[in-house]
Amino acid sequence: MGNKRIIIMGASSGIGYEVARLFIDRGWLVGLAARRTDLLSELQAQAPERVRIQGIDITDQEADQALQYLIAALGGMDIYLHVSGIGKQNKTLDPEIEENTFQTNVVGFGRMVGAVYRYFSQKGKGQIAVVSSIAGTKGLGVAPAYSATKRFQNTYIQALAQLARMEGCHIDFTDIRPGFVDTALLSGTQHYPMLMRPEKVARQIVSAIEHRRRVVVIDWRYAVITYIWQLIPRWVWERMVVRTRRK
Ligand SMILES: NC(=O)c1ccc[n+]([C@@H]2O[C@H](COP(=O)([O-])OP(=O)(O)OC[C@H]3O[C@@H](n4cnc5c(N)ncnc54)[C@H](OP(=O)(O)O)[C@@H]3O)[C@@H](O)[C@H]2O)c1
């Protein structure tokens, strides 16, 4: 896999940053994107000859054009990893939080993944990996927009996987669903159980991409939890109290 070319959207912090470090260490050609280009430059300094960066805001209507520039700068793309996302608990349904979440996790996500699908379908092959979440397994009362948008991502990837087969396109899809990870996304007043280190999660993500897994829950404890969640009938789920503790 030595000279593979991967583009990571959302590489400036947290999970994406750690995954980027691992692919750079592996000697891959790596394209990095996010809004905070100063943080991307730090990663690029690790291997300037193999790393290209591009400032991209996926909520911007021109974001797919900016992605094309990055693909060209890298000399092409074999794998696209979409990590960009936002999420907040929002029990008051603050409209700004809900709408920003829709814009980033649905509109921006669909814009970028759609552009990449069209690129790979023209090229004849490729791999699209996305970091969604276990939050898409069920509707979560404490984070309605976040859980709904993550479910959207799961379903969108499933739809594209079926479309690619119907059209005879050799595109592989990897839907990565982590449990709680200790990153800025969770920073706040809540205590999150079974918190995982982003470095550990990143190693499992790299393995899932290299093995072209279709769906991966990280880690095995969350795989068990979400399996059980899926078995809970709707009328029981809607009467359950599912929330985190204050710190
Ligand atoms: N932390 C968890 O517990 C957890 C669990 C499951 C899934 N996830 C998912 O993992 C992904 C990464 O989150 P994280 O935990 O690593 O948090 P993070 O450190 O806040 O990282 C979020 C990344 O998304 C990028 N991003 C946000 N809005 C963007 C936009 N409009 N355009 C381009 N990039 C944007 C950020 O870059 P810029 O701000 O520089 O643009 C940053 O690189 C998210 O999709 C999240 O839903 C997280």
What's a quick, concise take on this entry?
The protein is an alpha/beta fold and 247 residues long. The chain has helices spanning 14-25, 37-44, 63-74, 95-123, 144-166, 198-210, 220-231, 234-237, and strands at residues 5-9, 29-34, 51-55, 79-82, 125-131, 170-178, 190-191, 215-218, 245-246. It is built from 8 helices and 9 strands.
Topology:
Elements: E1 5-9, H1 14-25, E2 29-34, H2 37-44, E3 51-55, H3 63-74, E4 79-82, H4 95-123, E5 125-131, H5 144-166, E6 170-178, E7 190-191, H6 198-210, E8 215-218, H7 220-231, H8 234-237, E9 245-246
Parallel strand pairs: 1-2, 1-4, 2-3, 4-5, 5-6, 6-8
Antiparallel strand pairs: 7-9
Helix pairs in contact: 1-6, 4-5
The structure holds NADP nicotinamide-adenine-dinucleotide phosphate (NAP).
Write the CATH fold name.
Answer: Rossmann fold
Spatial order of the strands in the main sheet?
3-2-1-4-5-6-8
Largest sheet features: 7 strands, parallel
Proportion of β residues? 15-25%
Radius of gyration: 18 Å
State mean pLDDT (0 to 100 scale).
Answer: 96
- Give the % helix: 40-55%
Unreliable stretches covering 5 or more consecutive residues: none
CATH class: Alpha Beta
N-to-C series of helices and strands: EHEHEHEHEHEEHEHHE
